[in-house]
């Protein structure tokens, strides 16, 4: 029930079809920044959606998960701060440089990265962006999240423009710093030494959902 209420809350703020229409109209005029500025003003309302969701499920969580609930809110803050930096200029750049097309072209590859990195944590062995794993920030999950990061960025780097991969990697790193996994090496650091860095289970759903949502919105 809490999940349904959360989805209704988010949909009341963001209509995918409407955003696509606005983007299509703004892109030829070079006014993408105005579209994202409009939606970034709704950030406080989106935070309220998350707060209501986490408050509702609080009774269903054990003590460890309750601690991580606060981290989920921190991750939400980080995502919104990143996406809406300078009133949406960063996300406008992502769109203007072919970010959505890159994501949609690599959609299956990204899902494969997700399967490879996180299937072992799922009861049926098939991770889904609609299923949220337990709120844990243990080292093994952090390592798996980093494996996902390295895999996804490697795929996005195959796109024609480097900007989409650069922005998504910055997004991973930005969110990582808002979780307990920040005490471990980042993927950017470990990638240089042939290792894999660390991230958080809670970030997987947030980041991957956002990543594919960006592609879905811009898939004309």
From TrEMBL:
InterPro entries membership: DUF1397
Transmembrane segments: 196-219
Leader sequence residues: none
Superkingdom of origin organism: Eukaryota
Pfam families: DUF1397
The entry's keywords: Membrane, Transmembrane, Transmembrane helix
Full protein name: 27 kDa hemolymph protein-like
Organism: Aphis craccivora (Cowpea aphid)
């Amino acid at each position: 029930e809490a999940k349904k209420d959360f989805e209704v809350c988010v949909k009341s703020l963001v209509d995918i079809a409407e955003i696509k229409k606005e983007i299509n109209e703004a892109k030829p005029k070079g006014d993408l920044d105005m579209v994202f500025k409009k939606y970034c003003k709704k950030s406080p309302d989106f935070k309220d959606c998350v707060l209501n969701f986490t408050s509702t499920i609080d009774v269903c969580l054990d003590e460890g998960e309750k601690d991580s609930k606060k981290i989920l809110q921190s991750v939400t803050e980080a995502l919104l701060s990143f996406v809406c930096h300078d009133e949406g200029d960063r996300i406008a750049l992502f769109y203007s440089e072919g970010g959505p097309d890159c994501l949609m072209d690599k959609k299956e590859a990204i899902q494969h990265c997700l399967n490879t990195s996180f299937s072992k944590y799922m009861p049926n062995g098939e991770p889904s962006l609609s299923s949220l794993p337990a709120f844990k920030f243990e080292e093994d999950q952090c390592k798996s999240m980093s494996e996902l990061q390295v895999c996804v960025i490697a795929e996005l780097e195959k796109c024609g423009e480097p900007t989409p991969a650069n922005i998504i990697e910055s997004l991973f790193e930005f969110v990582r710093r808002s979780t307990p996994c920040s005490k471990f090496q980042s993927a950017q650091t470990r990638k240089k030494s042939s290792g894999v860095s660390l991230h958080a289970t809670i970030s997987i759903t947030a980041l991957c959902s956002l990543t594919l949502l960006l592609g879905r919105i811009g898939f004309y």
